[in-house]
Amino acid sequence: MKQLDKITPRDVDFSQWYTDTVINAKLASYGPVKGTIIFRPYGYAIWELIQKYLDGKFKEIGVENVYFPLLIPQSLFQKEKDHIEGFSPEIATVTRVGDTELPEPLFIRPTSEVLMANYFKNEVKSYRDLPLIYNQWTNVMRWEKTTRPFLRTSEFLWQEGHTVHSDRKEASDLTLKILDIYTEFANNLLLLPVISGKKTEREKFAGADSTYTIESLMHDGQALQCGTSHYFADNFSKPYEIKFQNKEGKLEHAYSTSWGVSTRLIGAIIMTHSDDNGLVLPSSISPVQIRIIQIKETEEVLKVSNDIKNLLSNKYRVDTDKTDKSFGFKISEAEIKGIPLRIEIGPRDLENDQVTISRRDTREKIQVNVREIEQAIDQMIKEYDANLYANALKNRENRTSKAKTIEEYKKVLESNQGFVLVPFCGEVECEEKVKKETSTNSRCIPFEQDNKIENCFNCNKETKLKVYFARAY
């Protein structure tokens, strides 16, 4: 079967395979500035489907969408010390307009906590004004040294939720509720079997009290952070003076959260599900779920194609390849773009009242009676998605190990790169040493802990904590 362009096999060069898949599937092109990409229609359509689902889920719990400015005054950004230290190496700065030097440098937002905090300070007066539960779908800029389409780019798209509350528990509960939304979305729609948990002190978001995460494992055994939810307590409300009058008439600092997922989810989907023939997409976020390909454009083939499209379009995103390219090229293009199912219709099949349906994941072909096509498609889509999830879960389980000592940990990484569950003290200095020695870091502290006292795998201190470590993108 003809490929549009050569795709490097995954097992030969995973990095090059990834780039080849992105380019050949027409998801993105490189922008004129290093580290930027152009979202092509097919790639942006995937993001739109992610947006549509999550936006609906957010609105079900009372989230309101807003939009805040791109530029942040330097003096405003520097009010929260930990926050500025966490982002300063990546901040792009505007210092001139035309020939005029600006009186104060302006930062291009790497995230919007400070803008939101400054707004909340003026908006919040009483407990009656709270909670404020906002989200924006926007772009941010973080000047990355090493970039890769979708996974790590200098400018990327994301959603960032920001909330402020009069009650500490309410804020903490919302942080975990958002994490649940992300977890369900990743597992059930993106078909990514994620591990959810809490970040270590070293890995938590700059300025947060607690950071929670969903972590997925790619085909090559490297981890990818797929979404985070942060509980700030009053860490931002104190420096930005977000105060409200509580029910007792006293002034109190508010409690805030932030949370987000980005277009790196598209990278996660590619590296988890795709293969040497190109993209493989979960049906829920595939811009085209079913493509009809006509083997020969006879009058009967055209009529049956149109009837099938009309029938299935009530449930699915269906298109018909009407290009004048060869049949083989059409098949290759549908495969490279990861379209879950193809319906191939030709005169010979129709003589027996049949069409051929092909699955992208297994490349299996079956003949189906035209009158039974809707039921067959329903079943095949379910089986297709179940298979994608099962394969991803199997890869994660096969690549998940345990280690008790740093020596054992290093051996596991060499023999079976993936998640490694270790007893860990949780101290920043200890994790710094592990990273320096192994180029790995903690991914998350899983919610389920056995509370058994063991010795830290690196420094040997007693601990009850079990933590997943891995190499990561």
TrEMBL record:
GO terms for molecular function: ATP binding; proline-tRNA ligase activity. This is Proline--tRNA ligase. GO terms for cellular component: aminoacyl-tRNA synthetase multienzyme complex; cytoplasm. The keyword Protein biosynthesis applies. It is found in: Cytoplasm. Homodimer. Keywords: Aminoacyl-tRNA synthetase, ATP-binding, Cytoplasm, Ligase, Nucleotide-binding, Protein biosynthesis. Belongs to the class-II aminoacyl-tRNA synthetase family. ProS type 3 subfamily. GO terms for biological process: prolyl-tRNA aminoacylation. The gene is proS. Gene3D superfamilies: Anticodon-binding domain, Bira Bifunctional Protein, Domain 2, C-terminal domain of ProRS. Residues 35-282 form the Aminoacyl-transfer RNA synthetases class-II family profile domain.
